[in-house]
Amino acid sequence: MNGGIIMRVIIVEDKVAGGKEACKVFANALANGAKVLGLATGGTPETTYQELVASKLDFSKLVSVNLDEYVGLGADDPQSYNYYMKQHLFNQKPFAKSYLPNGLAEDEAAEIERYNQILAANPVDLQLLGIGENGHIGFNEPGSPLDAKTRKVALTESTIKANARYFEREEDVPRYAYSMGIGSIMQAKEILLEAFGAKKAQAVKALVEGPVDANVPATILQKHPNVTVIVDKQAAALLTKK
Ligand SMILES: N[C@@H]1[C@@H](O)[C@H](O)[C@@H](COP(=O)(O)O)O[C@@H]1O
């Protein structure tokens, strides 16, 4: 239970409508002086990025920090999250500075430290999140410590399978990633989580109605004071209160 904090849940027809709602949340954050945007990858935020690209919003004086990156993939690798961000947002709407973990860093501990320093120097005003079918956020898989900062994480089999659609073969999906920890994510002043499609319905039910449970990492968001959840009808299907 969330101790009285209300999570705003917006149910939309589909992911296109979801992207439009999300764009409003971004516009509002910018109007309120947001300087640092926390960004996410995956299929879910694609419509949001389309809306942001089409909008008049200006990110040229803002900083972005991303949640995660696959260990072993460089920024020029089409499957990397660095590449994804350039394709979906940065090429069209550049920021003053955009940070992602470096999947090719030789010294992993130094890379984690570097990213934590970036986050300390750039507190996130609005963090965009998707959600894994198993309730993961970033790459914080079930059982992740709820107070962790950036770290190297092993992907679960379910995440490897879910993300295999972006790779030629399932064997090509990296087994590790650098991810902002749940503690880092919870530092954001405001959080916007999106979920579209029936595969996310169970995770969304746990997120909105379940108890806080480290086995469903997203449920910790119930303890955050400013969370908006945008879901389509399919992802909202198991919610009891609509
Ligand atoms: N690390 C990412 C998450 O940030 C993302 O939210 C999730 C869902 O992805 P999708 O939006 O493609 O369903 O999967 C990946 O594992």
From TrEMBL:
<dbReference type="GO" id="GO:0006043">
    <property type="term" value="P:glucosamine catabolic process"/>
</dbReference>
<feature type="active site" description="For ring-opening step">
    <location>
        <position position="141"/>
    </location>
</feature>
<feature type="domain" description="Glucosamine/galactosamine-6-phosphate isomerase">
    <location>
        <begin position="26"/>
        <end position="224"/>
    </location>
</feature>
<dbReference type="InterPro" id="IPR018321">
    <property type="entry name" value="Glucosamine6P_isomerase_CS"/>
</dbReference>
<comment type="similarity">
    <text>Belongs to the glucosamine/galactosamine-6-phosphate isomerase family. NagB subfamily.</text>
</comment>
<keyword id="KW-0413">Isomerase</keyword>
<dbReference type="GO" id="GO:0042802">
    <property type="term" value="F:identical protein binding"/>
</dbReference>
<dbReference type="InterPro" id="IPR004547">
    <property type="entry name" value="Glucosamine6P_isomerase"/>
</dbReference>
<dbReference type="GO" id="GO:0005737">
    <property type="term" value="C:cytoplasm"/>
</dbReference>
<keyword id="KW-0119">Carbohydrate metabolism</keyword>
<dbReference type="GO" id="GO:0006046">
    <property type="term" value="P:N-acetylglucosamine catabolic process"/>
</dbReference>
<feature type="active site" description="Proton acceptor; for ring-opening step">
    <location>
        <position position="136"/>
    </location>
</feature>
<keyword id="KW-0378">Hydrolase</keyword>
<comment type="function">
    <text>Catalyzes the reversible isomerization-deamination of glucosamine 6-phosphate (GlcN6P) to form fructose 6-phosphate (Fru6P) and ammonium ion.</text>
</comment>
<dbReference type="GO" id="GO:0005975">
    <property type="term" value="P:carbohydrate metabolic process"/>
</dbReference>
<dbReference type="GO" id="GO:0016853">
    <property type="term" value="F:isomerase activity"/>
</dbReference>
<protein>
    <recommendedName>
        <fullName>Glucosamine-6-phosphate deaminase</fullName>
        <ecNumber>3.5.99.6</ecNumber>
    </recommendedName>
</protein>
<dbReference type="GO" id="GO:0019262">
    <property type="term" value="P:N-acetylneuraminate catabolic process"/>
</dbReference>
<feature type="active site" description="For ring-opening step">
    <location>
        <position position="134"/>
    </location>
</feature>
<dbReference type="InterPro" id="IPR006148">
    <property type="entry name" value="Glc/Gal-6P_isomerase"/>
</dbReference>
<dbReference type="InterPro" id="IPR037171">
    <property type="entry name" value="NagB/RpiA_transferase-like"/>
</dbReference>
<dbReference type="Pfam" id="PF01182">
    <property type="entry name" value="Glucosamine_iso"/>
</dbReference>
<comment type="pathway">
    <text>Amino-sugar metabolism; N-acetylneuraminate degradation; D-fructose 6-phosphate from N-acetylneuraminate: step 5/5.</text>
</comment>
<dbReference type="GO" id="GO:0004342">
    <property type="term" value="F:glucosamine-6-phosphate deaminase activity"/>
</dbReference>
<feature type="active site" description="Proton acceptor; for enolization step">
    <location>
        <position position="68"/>
    </location>
</feature>
